[in-house]
C-alpha cells in the first residue's frame, strides 16, 4: 500500500471514530467504531514463505472441514450442548448480577475477594487488568470511584493468602467463592478458612452479608456441588454457572460478571461486544469469519508447518492477562490425547504468553533466531487512553534526540512495528489483533473471538475442546493424597 493511500485510510478511520463519538450518532455506528481488526497477512506464505506461512491452497483445502464443523457447532449451539455462545443474551441473569452487586455496594464494601482457580479466576483477572488501572488497589477510594479493592485468590500459597487476610478485614469485605464443580480442593480450602474467619469475627448470622457463591445449578443432572450445602447452611446468595458452560468459557456468566459488576464495569458494553463478535462469527466462510480464519491458520501452522507453539503477545499492560486467559483456553481445550473417535493423537499447540515491549528484551531473540516452530499473535491497541510525551530533557545527550518531544505512545508503536517487521525478515508467521481502544466492548469482542476460534479449532483437530480429563485426574490424585475420596 502506498504511503498516500495509507494516510487516506488512516484519516478516514480517524474521522469515522470522531463521528461515531458525536451526539446524534446511531448506536450501530458508534459500536462499529469499536470493531476490533484481525489481520493475518503476515502469517501467509506470501509474507513468510511457503515453508512457514499458510498457502492459499492450504486454506482452501480446509474449507470443506470448516463448513462441516460450522454445521456441527451451529447444531450443538441450537441444541444447547455448549452454552457459552449465548451467555450474553440471558437478560435475567445479567439483571440479577447487576442488582445483587448494587445491593452489596450499597451496604458498603471495601474489598472484594474472589476465591477460585483456573476458569473460575483467569477470565475475571483478564477483565480487571484490562479495564482497571494497573495500580487499582493502591489508588484512593475516590480514584476507584468508591468501588472496592479486588483480590483474585487463585492459588493456595499460604503466604499470599495470609497477606490478603491481613489487608482485608472480614467486616469490610465481600468474598465470592467460585467453583463450577463445587469440589476443587484449592477453592474449598480457601473457603473453609474464610468461613472460619467470618464466624469467629462476625458470627454465623453475618456470613450471608459477606459471602456469595457461584457454582453448578442444583439438579438438572449436575453432580451436586459442595457449595450448595454451604449456601443452604448460611442462607447465601448463590449464582449459577450453566451446566453447558465449561470453566474456561464462563467469563460472561456470573463467574466473571458478578465481580465485574462489583467493580463498576459496564455490563452493557460486554454484552454489546459479545453480540458484535457473535455476528461477525456467524458465517461459515473463512473470508468472513475471523474466528474460523484464525483457527484454520493456527491448525494448519501446527499440523503442516511445524508451528507447535502459539505465542500471544499483547503490546499493552492492560492486555497482558488476556494472554494468560488465552493460554488456559488454548491449552486445556486442545491439548488432548484422544480424538473424538478415540484415536491416540496427542494434539494441541503449546500456548505461550509474552508482553511487548518488555519481552522483546527477554523472548524476541528466541522468537527470531530459535526454532521456527511458533505462530505469534500480537494484541494491539490503536489508541491508548492516555498520552505521555517524552520531554525535551537531557539536551546535552545528543544521542537521545530521537526521543525528545516524541511520546511513549509513538515509541510503543515503533517497537511493535520493529518487532513484527523483524519477525517477517526471519520468516516467522505473525497475526495481529488490533483493538481501536480498550473498553468493555472491545475486550468482550476479543474474548468471544478466542472462544469461537477455540471451538472451531477443536473440530479441526477432531478433539473435544470442552472437557479436561487430564486436569480431573490430577485433582483426584491430590484429593486421595490428602486422605480424601479420590
Ligand atoms: O476450565 C476448566 O474447567 C478448569 O480450569 C476449571 O475452571 C478449574 O479446574 C476450576 O474448577 P472449578 O471451577 O470446578 O473449581
Radius of gyration equals 23 Å
Going by helix content, strand content and strand pairing, the class is: alpha/beta
Question: Helix share of residues?
Answer: 40-55%
Q: How would you sum up the global shape?
A: globular
Biggest sheet architecture: 5 strands, mixed
Supply the CATH superfamily name of the largest domain. Answer: Glucose-6-phosphate isomerase like protein, domain 1
Indicate the mean pLDDT: 93
Element pattern in H and E: HHEHHHEHEHEHEHEHHHEHEHEHEHH
Describe the strand arrangement of the main beta sheet, using strand numbers.
Answer: 1-10-9-7-8
CATH architecture annotation name of the largest domain: 3-Layer(aba) Sandwich
> What ligand molecules are bound, each kind once?
5-phosphoarabinonic acid
The top-level CATH class of the largest domain is Alpha Beta
Number of domains: 2
- Strand-residue fraction? 5-15%
**Helix segment tally:** 17
Amino acid at each position: 500500500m502506498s504511503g498516500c493511500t495509507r494516510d487516506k485510510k488512516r484519516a478516514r478511520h480517524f474521522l469515522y471514530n470522531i463521528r461515531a463519538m458525536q451526539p446524534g450518532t446511531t448506536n450501530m455506528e458508534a459500536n462499529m467504531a469499536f470493531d476490533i481488526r484481525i489481520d493475518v497477512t503476515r502469517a501467509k506464505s506470501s509474507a513468510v514463505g511457503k515453508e512457514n506461512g499458510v498457502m492459499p491452497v492450504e486454506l482452501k483445502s480446509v474449507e470443506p472441514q470448516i463448513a462441516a464443523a460450522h454445521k456441527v457447532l451451529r447444531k450443538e449451539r441450537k441444541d444447547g450442548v455448549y452454552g457459552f455462545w449465548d451467555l450474553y443474551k440471558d437478560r435475567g441473569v445479567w439483571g440479577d448480577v447487576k442488582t445483587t452487586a448494587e445491593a452489596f455496594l450499597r451496604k458498603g464494601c471495601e474489598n472484594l475477594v474472589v476465591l477460585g482457580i483456573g476458569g473460575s479466576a483467569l477470565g475475571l483477572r483478564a477483565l480487571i487488568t484490562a479495564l482497571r488501572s494497573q495500580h487499582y488497589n493502591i489508588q484512593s477510594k475516590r480514584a476507584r470511584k468508591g468501588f472496592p479493592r479486588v483480590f483474585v485468590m487463585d492459588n493456595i500459597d499460604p503466604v499470599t493468602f495470609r497477606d490478603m487476610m491481613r489487608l482485608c478485614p472480614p467486616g469490610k469485605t465481600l468474598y465470592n467463592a467460585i467453583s463450577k464443580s463445587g469440589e476443587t480442593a484449592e477453592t474449598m480450602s480457601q473457603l473453609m478458612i474464610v468461613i472460619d474467619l467470618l464466624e469467629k469475627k462476625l458470627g454465623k448470622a453475618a456470613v450471608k452479608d459477606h459471602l456469595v457463591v457461584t457454582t453448578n445449578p442444583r439438579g438438572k443432572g449436575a453432580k451436586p456441588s459442595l457449595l450448595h450445602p454451604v449456601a443452604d447452611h448460611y442462607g447465601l446468595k448463590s449464582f449459577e454457572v450453566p451446566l453447558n458452560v465449561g470453566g474456561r468459557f464462563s467469563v460472561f456468566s456470573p463467574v466473571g460478571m458478578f465481580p465485574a459488576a462489583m467493580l463498576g464495569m459496564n455490563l452493557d458494553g460486554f454484552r454489546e461486544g459479545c453480540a458484535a463478535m457473535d455476528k461477525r462469527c456467524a458465517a461459515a466462510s473463512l473470508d468472513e469469519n475471523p474466528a474460523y480464519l484464525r483457527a484454520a491458520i493456527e491448525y494448519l501452522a501446527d499440523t503442516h508447518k511445524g508451528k507447535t507453539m502459539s505465542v500471544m503477545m499483547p503490546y499493552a499492560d492492560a492486555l497482558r492477562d488476556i494472554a494468560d486467559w488465552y493460554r488456559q483456553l488454548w491449552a486445556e481445550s486442545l491439548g488432548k490425547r484422544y480424538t473424538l473417535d478415540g484415536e491416540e493423537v496427542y494434539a494441541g499447540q503449546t500456548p505461550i504468553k509474552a508482553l511487548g515491549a518488555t519481552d522483546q528484551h527477554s523472548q524476541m531473540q528466541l522468537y527470531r533466531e530459535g526454532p521456527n516452530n511458533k505462530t505469534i499473535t500480537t494484541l494491539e491497541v490503536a489508541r491508548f487512553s492516555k498520552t505521555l510525551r517524552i520531554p525535551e530533557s537531557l539536551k546535552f545527550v545528543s544521542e537521545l534526540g530521537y526521543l525528545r518531544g516524541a511520546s511513549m505512545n509513538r515509541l510503543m508503536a515503533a517497537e511493535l512495528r520493529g518487532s513484527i517487521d523483524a519477525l517477517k525478515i526471519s520468516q516467522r508467521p505473525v497475526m495481529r489483533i488490533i483493538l481501536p481502544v480498550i473498553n468493555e466492548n472491545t475486550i468482550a469482542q476479543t474474548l468471544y473471538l478466542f472462544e469461537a476460534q477455540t471451538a472451531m479449532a477443536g473440530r479441526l483437530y477432531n478433539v473435544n475442546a470442552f472437557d479436561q480429563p487430564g486436569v480431573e485426574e490430577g485433582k483426584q490424585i491430590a484429593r486421595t493424597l490428602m486422605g480424601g475420596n479420590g
